[in-house]
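Backbone geometry:
***
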Amino acid sequence: MDKKIKKVSFLPLIFWSTIIFFISFIMFFTLHETKRYTYVHSFIHSDFMAHIPIIKSFLYGGNFHPIEYPLFVGEKINYHYGFHIMAAFLERLGLPFSYSVNILSITGFLGFLFFMYLITKYITNDKIAPYIAVLLPFFDFSFVWLVYILKHGQNWLIDIPKLKFYVCFGPWDGSIISAFWNLNIYLNQRHLAMGFALTFLSIYLIAFMFYKVDNLLKKLFIIFLNMIILISLVYIHKGMLIITLLFWGIYIGVKTVHLFFLWLKNKKQENPTNLKPQIFELLYLSLGILASFLLVLFFLELAYSQFTRPDGLKVIRIFLGFLYTSSKALRPLKISGFLKWLIYTLANLGILPFLGIIGFILSLKEGSENIKLANISIFLLSWIVFAMANIVVFSLEVAINHKFINFSILIWEMYTAYVFVKLLKAKILAKTFLFIIIFMLLFNFVLDYSPIFNSYAIMWEKENYNPVSKWILSHTDPKDKFLNITYDVSSIEMAGRRIFFGWDYFAMSAGYNTYKRRSEYYSFLKTYKSKPLLARKRLCKIMKKHNLKYVFLRGKDKFIDLNIDANELAKTLFSGIKPLYHDDITYIYSYGEICKKKQ
């Protein structure tokens, strides 16, 4: 008997140890470093071209009060930067960059999986379903397996080990299936998992813990903790902030309706139930969310809202159908837009939404009255958030709505875990259906992870070894800003300094006016060959206007749609001016030297 108890008690330990090992392995595999280089996997490099500059700007660049977007100087940051500040703080304490980022990434990922486990345990009242719920986020329910077979034909089996790219990477490759539904999203956007963890923690505290405690002070403490969570989300992930506030509203609404029906029922009874404790609990929650909302507005103002733009251009707007219009395969079809969206959604999410609905219906039989109300609220949240992702967009970039769909997927996976348990206990036909689903999930798993292990990493030379970065760190002030005339600015970014214009996509998706800034570049770059003195005068005007201290040129680059040659530009635009720093491909000039009164 004792041996049996010991074996059972070790199963959770083995399970969670395996989960932690896999998460840690994949995080460090895609982001690691040696003494001289930081290695960023090619699949996540595009996102880290934004993450690294933000983190380094807090570490070396004195990027405080106000916090500027380091890739678009002169504008207050619209991006949620809490994760990046924490990473910079850990690096300041002495941890290597990769450890700082990966520790936070692992903590966030493990956090939302753990709270998925707890919530699934409550809503299903089952021992196995929570473990299945933890596993499902590692898998992809889309029909990417079918697209792969159609693409590779008879070679589909022998080509799998050789895959170097994702089968589908919509919207960027025009595929019908987008790149947001597998683990890739948590590797790219390291702060997303932490946002999910905080949102699930809030749901867990309010929907389940609040009613387990009978002491008023403990209830108020739980509300206070949720206020802290909401304030944290202002800085860590504003999208999850919206979802968390939305859950509070939905939950209070569901509780209010429930109390109303109880009150109607009480009126018909001779010995009515005392509803005062429930009414007061609802009142505490309502006042808590009102106070939290006011606090959130205050802290959003301090952190700078990503939903407004300084030039007054509209960002929040109606946009129907998420990214279905980006699929090249759907464009020729002569059917309604709604049917195209339906095909797109089915291709991307598979049967997961249907399994989620079935799981919810089955789970309604489980748990107490309070758990059932929480269950209904969580299910409603998933569908309201999914609808919101397909109706409203909060940025110029529609793709950012993926986070809302990702969150809905996680909730549907909790209910799907319960469906799996029921199918395991059912007859042979149901079991066969389950095994087909599992086979497709495993197939997608291999397709999603094979390219990661077959691809390559991109090296970032560390600031202590890169000669340009070392010069910048020792010869410039932390708050100095650079007018870059190239996209190749890693040496500036590793030194934590800010640049005038980074990769267009980052600034555009964050809501900045990239068109206006491009026009400023065009004002001198399109005339420097024919009228170098006039071009330099215009350049100086821009540098003075934006308080830019240095000009940075490097190599040959396709910059803002122009072919830039640093050597040619230096000889023409800066003729007779000695650069502060120069090597074979890099030039750094100071504002004082190139913008003297006498030119």
